[in-house]
Amino acid sequence: MKLRAILLVVALLPLAVLPARGQPLPEIQTVAVPASGANVTGQVGPGGRALYYVAAQSLQALAVSIASPGNNAVFQVYGPGAQVTQGSDGKPAIAGTTLTDAGAKDASMAWMGVVPQSGLCLIAVDSKGGAASYTLTIQLQ
Question: What is this structure's pTM?
Fold first, then answer.
């Protein structure tokens, strides 16, 4: 009996070191931004992330703000070329450069800057703690 238990543990041990397989990557919604701006409402769960693409031209001004009950949602803005993959923890991981003052450490709730080159900017919405509902406002000039 002990031998079977040991063999079972030895057989299952390699599975313990495999990376976690999480949910499939979330769909990245492309937001069309008219001259009047765009509002997007959504929800993000604890540890979750919502992702949005915005097409922008080189040197175009981009303004993003977020409103949520209890100010529980923040965002980051990545320049064109950012790539989304599945991290080892199963959650979306982003490889790319955030625009100035729009990174994870900035905990942005309002931001305005200039897009350095034409392409799709990526906006990532995160919660600070528990689940968060939010309204994301995006403007291009």
Answer: 0.81
**DSSP class per residue in 35-99:** TT-EEEEEEE-TT-EEEEEEEE-TT-EEEEEEE-GGG-EEEEEE-TT-EEEE-TTSSEEEES-BP
Neighbours of 98 (CB within 10 A): 21
Pick the CATH number of 21-140 from 2.60.120.380, 2.60.120.1440, 1.10.3720.10, 3.40.50.1010: 2.60.120.380
| Residue 104 Cα distances to 30, 99, 123, angstroms | 21, 11, 11
CA dihedral 80→24→26→89, nearest 10 degrees, is -70
Contact 51, 92 (CB under 8 A): yes
Q: pLDDT tens digits, the chain, 141 residues: what are they?
A: 544 433 333 344 343 333 445 556 778 999 999 999 999 999 999 888 999 999 999 999 999 999 999 999 999 999 999 999 988 888 889 999 999 999 989 989 999 999 999 999 999 999 998 899 999 999 999
